[in-house]
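Question (not urgent): is this output format expected?
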Amino acid sequence: MSKILDIIESIANEKGLAINEVKDTVILALVNTAKRVYGREYEYGAEINQETKSLKLYQKVIVLRNDAKELSEENENFISLQAAKEVDPDIEVGDELTYELPLDNLGRTAAATLQRELEFHIQRLLETKIFDKYKSMVGRRVFGSVVRVDHEENTYIEVNEVRAIMPRKSRIKGEKFKVGDVVKSVIRKVFIDKTQGIVVELSRTSPKFLEALLQLEVPEIKDEMIEINASARIPGERAKIALTSLHPNIDAVGATVGTRGIRINSVSKELHGENIDCIEYSTIPEIFISRALSPAIISNVKIVSEDKAVVTLLPDQKSKAIGKSGINIRLTSMLTGYEIELVELETTTESTNESKDPNALKNLFGS
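Got this back:
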């Protein structure tokens, strides 16, 4: 097969594949074709001659001792040392001897088989490349056009070279899409399905979607001057996000909220009015939990285990800590990773006086 390198370069350029990957695929396809034509009981090899740009097919035989029991006229996988030395005087027992098989003698059937093999393996190569590409993009923002909504309200979205799916559960409550809508989302996961092939699943309810929108809206986050440490969402209702400034002159919360809330409101609009609390992150769990329970004013936080914290607060702050339908305490638990137990502070004269002292909380956390 002459000028095979030109064919390989053409396939690589057309499909956007590496030339070496296509070379390996062509060799694999030729070896598989030889097994179909000549028999799977034999060993084959193939190589590409760089000078002539031609492809050559070989049958491999193993050199055995002259008295080896495997030697027989019917078994073409082996050759005696005596017979092998007639071809190559330096050959030894255990070496491989190769015989070239002329490709011109394969015939039309073999040529058609080779074409099918090549198409199959090129397709597998393309699918592997696409899978690896989107697997590395998990958690990243993408956008595409809606092409179909099925009877289960799963939304199919064209994202570059793939048709991704957004399950109903991954839509914000109340959202409905129609064909032609351009939808923003994040890649939630990528996997192989036996019947559907590569499946790219999208989400608008993941906390990663909130983070991706903030990165788009807040230049300081995109430029890595502000770090997002954690985020938690109850989609369409409320979210909390913990931030750290990596620059001494930047206020992480202020920059993210923006002048008159313009930045955070833009993100909230995309999330159908989801209220977003921006919180300054702390490596000290007690302080982090106290800030996360805002707008409630906390009297004390005690970490009792690696995943549980007891929070003490005045009775009039308990409803604020819990929030409507328990949303505030749930989000705090999701954000900090701690199960939160609330304990009301006894309203004794001493504790009441302390609560009126404006320096009490400052003394509690040292700031």
